[in-house]
Amino acid sequence: MTISSAFYYDQLVNKILPFWENNSIDKEFNGYFTCLNEDGSVYDTDKFIWLQARQVWVFSKLYNDLNQNESWKDIATSGVKFLTEHGQDPDGNWYFSLNQSGKPLMAPYNIFSDCFAAMALSEYAKLNKDMELKEKSLKTFQNIQKRSSEPNNKYKKAITENRGFHSLSLPMISLNLQLEMNWILDSKDFLTKINAQAHQIIDRHLDKNLNIFLENIAINTIDQDTFQGRLISPGHGIETTWFLMDVGLLTNDTSLIDKSISILLSTLEYGWDSKYGGLFYFMDKHNKPMQELEHDQKLWWVHQEALIATAMGWRIQQNEDCQKWFKKLHDYAWDHFNDPKHGEWFGYLHRTGEKLNTSKGGKWKGCFHTPRAIYRCYKELKMIESQ
After folding, report:
1. pLDDT tens digits for range 2-53
2. CA 118 to CA 147: how far, in whole Å?
3. Of 263, 259, 283, 262, nearest in space to 271 by CA
4. What is the CATH code of the structural domain delimited by 166-356?
5. For the chain, what are the domain ranges?
6. Nearest CA to 208 among 263, 260, 256?
7. Which of these, 317, 302, 297, 308, lies nearest to 256 by C-alpha position?
8. 10 Å Cβ neighbour count for 117?
């Protein structure tokens, strides 16, 4: 399959976005349906704040950076209306899920609802020059900072006094969130702070022997040799590397970029399934039995994050290994995940590459990873072609 910026642009505007434009918009209550079958038909009407916010961000971002398409603005506006009218509890925390009309179904236990809401409102406020939404985005961000030591707030299940971990998830998402909200958070020491946070992620989570990020670092080292402590998520690790590259570019930190690309390549080598192809979902540092029964599945977003990261390494450093990996990932991903008939990508494959199910969206998959990845690859390839 052709590798070019033109190919990625065509897929984005003619295959990926139309799937969501035509099938996900709730014209009755605003917001979006994300539980979509292969053909785009709706199989469940519940709404999840992660995915509502992410879709707002996608259409706002593309309107701001790619094409001021009024229908994209309208789609983003629909999501913002739903979020601002129904998304928060009385304390300003963002619920996890709601029914179609906006009645809350699951309490605001998950801090990532707040992260993606802040990111969405920031991008839409930039689009619409809406100072009220800009302030709401900032307040949400500030609330995230207050909750960061106990992300699940009063809803936590773990007794962290007996076994606590530093998770990679929140620092890496926070890094990307701050990059996206830079225009709101802008301060004299922003670059210094975000660069320090990037290096802290490496210092804390990098396994020096494997040159790969561990998902959880035990506060008490005796707890590291546990299910949680041995867990490797190739997708999260790879996604983190391109966030770090973004910070390196912004702060002119070439050593950070070099290290990020080194970690990326180590993770790709470690996470690639040499028998069937594709990247594993979860792995154990010592190859011990895993809690996650889905560990050997192949997921759409893992491969999309890898496409972004390798395209960036190829473009920034003309790195031949990144170029080879991009082509390898491109071939696997487009052959296995893409749906040329209906548009959008399938999300879940068995280890062998057969589809686990044929849905295009659900509780965790919506209009986010695919359009973001295809757009970022389009931009990277366009710059590579002009070098």
Report:
1. 899 999 999 999 999 999 999 999 999 999 999 999 999 999 999 999 999 9
2. 14
3. 283
4. 1.50.10.10
5. 166-356
6. 263
7. 317
8. 29
